[in-house]
Amino acid sequence: MPPAEDSSVNSTTTRKQRKRFKRKVSIKVKRIAEKTKKRKEKANVTPLVTKYWLQRYDLFSKYDVGIKLDEEGWFSVTPEVIAACQAGRCAGAGVVIDAFAGVGGNAIQFAKVCSRVIAVEIDPEKVALAIHNAKIYGVEDCIDFIVGDFFQLAPFLKGDVVFLSPPWGGPSYKARQDFTLDLLKPKDGHSLFQAAQAITPNVIMYLPRNVDVLQVSELSWLSSPPLDIEVEENYVRGRSKGITVYFGDIAFQ
Ligand SMILES: C[S@@+](CC[C@H](N)C(=O)[O-])C[C@H]1O[C@@H](n2cnc3c(N)ncnc32)[C@H](O)[C@@H]1O
């Protein structure tokens, strides 16, 4: 057993060491917090989108290479793993029309596996961001970006698959028990589906996880004979993020 004196010296030293260690840790924590704050400011992360910023690598695996998003882009982009899965259904397809392209989450994944993508987006600033993001993934040459309203452009577009990822009306969609198709923006789900059907029967819709699936399945009856339909629930890290509905030849592939 060490003498009592020694033990008091030891405990004083230990206390000092502990204090110094605590100070070091708190300085490190402060530095990390400052760095995180600066990175968030640089990426336009407002309090509303902080939650999505924390999932940034789920949204774009190449986020750190310089991906850019605006506020709406943060909460409306399709997570990369889901976009890749949706694109996988179209592998080898000729032309895919991404009717609501946003900041490019889906268009980039389609461009990886299809020969051509027509990306339509009404907001010119989002188109600029989508072009920038497509460059990061090296697929900008496979995408024709069009600034415009899909409903006005639809009669002039030709393609093998139409992908519909319309606005869900912001994060408040989650509060609803049953999300009905009339809540989609800028027009209801029927109008949206009909505009796409005029181009091709092969349509993909990406919808909220609380969408009324029965109502969605009724869309297949708008065509004669009724279209094949497949409904898929999409998860990221075990969390349900949305529902993808495949109509026509791309169902059950
Ligand atoms: C849910 S976001 C699409 C996100 C996209 N799938 C992605 O992964 O980045 C819907 C987009 O539709 C655009 N939009 C709204 N009305 C439109 C219209 N009439 N024609 C084309 N784009 C429209 C919005 O500006 C918004 O960027």
Automatic annotation (TrEMBL):
GO terms for molecular function: RNA cap trimethylguanosine synthase activity. It is found in: Cytoplasm; Nucleus, Cajal body; Nucleus, Nucleolus. InterPro entries: RNA_cap_Gua-N2-MeTrfase, SAM-dependent_MTases_sf. Coiled coil: none annotated. It comes from the Eukaryota. It catalyses: a 5'-end (N(7)-methyl 5'-triphosphoguanosine)-ribonucleoside in snoRNA + S-adenosyl-L-methionine = a 5'-end (N(2),N(7)-dimethyl 5'-triphosphoguanosine)-ribonucleoside in snoRNA + S-adenosyl-L-homocysteine + H(+); a 5'-end (N(7)-methyl 5'-triphosphoguanosine)-ribonucleoside in snRNA + S-adenosyl-L-methionine = a 5'-end (N(2),N(7)-dimethyl 5'-triphosphoguanosine)-ribonucleoside in snRNA + S-adenosyl-L-homocysteine + H(+); a 5'-end (N(2),N(7)-dimethyl 5'-triphosphoguanosine)-ribonucleoside in snRNA + S-adenosyl-L-methionine = a 5'-end (N(2),N(2),N(7)-trimethyl 5'-triphosphoguanosine)-ribonucleoside in snRNA + S-adenosyl-L-homocysteine + H(+); a 5'-end (N(2),N(7)-dimethyl 5'-triphosphoguanosine)-ribonucleoside in snoRNA + S-adenosyl-L-methionine = a 5'-end (N(2),N(2),N(7)-trimethyl 5'-triphosphoguanosine)-ribonucleoside in snoRNA + S-adenosyl-L-homocysteine + H(+). Keywords: Cytoplasm, Methyltransferase, Nucleus, Phosphoprotein, S-adenosyl-L-methionine, Transcription, Transcription regulation, Transferase. Residues 1-23 are annotated as: Disordered. One of its GO terms (biological process) is 7-methylguanosine cap hypermethylation. Its main location: cytoplasm. One of its GO terms (cellular component) is Cajal body. PANTHER family: S-ADENOSYLMETHIONINE-DEPENDENT METHYLTRANSFERASE RELATED, TRIMETHYLGUANOSINE SYNTHASE. Catalyzes the 2 serial methylation steps for the conversion of the 7-monomethylguanosine (m(7)G) caps of snRNAs and snoRNAs to a 2,2,7-trimethylguanosine (m(2,2,7)G) cap structure. The enzyme is specific for guanine, and N7 methylation must precede N2 methylation. Hypermethylation of the m7G cap of U snRNAs leads to their concentration in nuclear foci, their colocalization with coilin and the formation of canonical Cajal bodies (CBs). Plays a role in transcriptional regulation. May form homooligomers. Interacts with CREBBP/CBP, EED/WAIT1, EP300/P300, NCOA6/PRIP, PPARBP/PBP and SMN. Belongs to the methyltransferase superfamily. Trimethylguanosine synthase family. This is Trimethylguanosine synthase. It comes from Erythranthe guttata (Yellow monkey flower).
